[in-house]
Amino acid sequence: MKYAIRTRHDLMSQEIRNHLKERFDTLGLSEDNTEPDIVVTIGGDGTLLDAFHHYVDRLDTTAFVGIHTGHLGFYADWLPHEINALAEGIAHGKYSIETYPLIEVRMSKLNAEPQKYLVLNEATFRLASGTLAVDVYLQNELFECFRGDGLCVSTPTGSTAYNRSLGGAIIHPTIEVMQLTEMASINNRVFRTIGSPLILPKDQTIKLIPTGAKKCILTIDHHTELHEDVTRLDYELSGKKVQFARLKASTFWNRVHNSFIN
What we know:
Blueprint: E1 2-7, H1 11-26, E2 30-31, E3 38-43, H2 45-54, E4 63-68, H3 83-91, E5 96-109, E6 115-119, E7 122-127, E8 132-138, E9 141-154, H4 162-165, E10 177-185, E11 198-201, E12 206-210, E13 215-220, E14 223-228, E15 230-246, H5 252-260
Parallel strand pairs: 1-2, 1-3, 3-4, 4-15
Antiparallel strand pairs: 5-6, 5-15, 7-9, 7-13, 8-9, 8-12, 9-10, 10-11, 12-15, 13-14
Helix pairs in contact: 1-3
């Protein structure tokens, strides 16, 4: 079993990393930061998102598990005092693999090759300044002409992130859907949008065509990019999935409860 550890740079996370590495080495696991079988993150959900994008080319063979030392541990559901049990469970293969859907985003620009991204949480689209105007197509049919701050497309696992703060639904991560949520839409006698989150099943697509936009901001999970001359954005569920190593009996709804209610 080969492992890699990704951490935040605070002292607590570094100390936990050193202790976990000693336990792994004692149990006969080997550290391999290039081709790990399992990646342990120490920090918060942002640390796990960073690890996901670092190993995005190894999703078929690498599983993730997180230790929570940050402010919110929805993905990172292990606590520092549990690291010995975590190390033992990984070393002896006492875990199951859960796979969750991802979204593929394809961005087209004038006089440039399309760029592709994989999304674990959500992708948002807005202007660098001003009101976003974009035509929204579902299954290549014009659905609405959106005016507002922006749009968010989220995975089921990402439904508890920014999507939730926008009033989107929380979706169980095993359901293969994506969700389109508005960011402060304009609704009056001239402009009208659905004003409600939309949940699209597998094999359906979303296409956004900006109208008159020059500089746009695209976020892919925790990464933010500024682009010019974006002509089109396409969203669909990816054929790839992310793998999580689960050693605890806690369910998805336990994690929702502990993150937002407890």
